Amino acid sequence: MKYREFARTGFKSSVIGMGTYYDFGWILSASLLRRGPGADMILKALETGLDNGINLIDTAEIYASERLVGRAIKGRDRESIFLATKAFPTHFRREKLIRSCEKSLKRLNTDYADLYQLHFPSRRVPISETMGAMEELVDSGKVRYIGISNFSFKSMIEAENALKKYRLTSTQMHYNVSHRQVENDILPHCEKEGIALLPYYPVGHGKLAKKGGNSSDALSEVATKHNLKSNAQAALTYLISRSNSIFPIPRARTPEHVLENAQLGESLLGEDELKYLQSAFPSPSPVMDE
Q1: N or C: which end of the chain has fewer CB within 10 A?
Q2: What predicted TM-score, i.e. pTM, was given to this entire model?
Q3: What are the structural domain ranges in the chain?
Q4: Where in the sequence numbering do the catalytic residues fall?
């Protein structure tokens, strides 16, 4: 596993992390019964990742997977794990955000979150109020770094400007080789400002792992050249080769897939290979901010 500094935190993170969003049925079951389908396998997947060098885990209060993550990290060196979670927009008022953070920490069975993220932008709560509460959480030691998720470039800048004492550490976006709109504005800004970008759906919700078709053949060619085991590995390698600011968080569902992910990072793609995959997967024009 390859490691690089996560933003400007000083923490050496694995270039591949583990995401813990599963599906609506899983969330419903886990919320009502405190146990989602296949929980034992997911726990084993998380433990497999940690045992094999993946030290970045992303979750959220809405995912209903925080307790499972808490079980996976129990008894391990907490300082060696970069733990990220998120607050839902309904909790963006100051008091609600602080209370939500405390509840997340309890479910995670930890005293602090390395990264606390705003899951989506809110149209009802001023970003200044929410970011003020985030900075209070940093001051209290319950949070180390502040992040956002699903914010447009315009909203991202507004979030950064709302911070008075601390810098924005990360943003999380839908991003993969076939969905590259963030490369137009968000990624260059992240590189300039030392902000980490966490792509979710880095394998296109499984679509990029499938074989067949010209685009898929391009991934297969790259996989063969770099001795990668699958198209999924090639898709992830595209992202970690694209920029040192990028830390993909593929879903950790099975030990086998997580172990494959843990083996990535030693062989990166060159500029010609990046351009080859970009040409094989034409990306739509960026959606302009209103």
Answers
A1: C
A2: 0.95
A3: 10-206+238-262
A4: 63
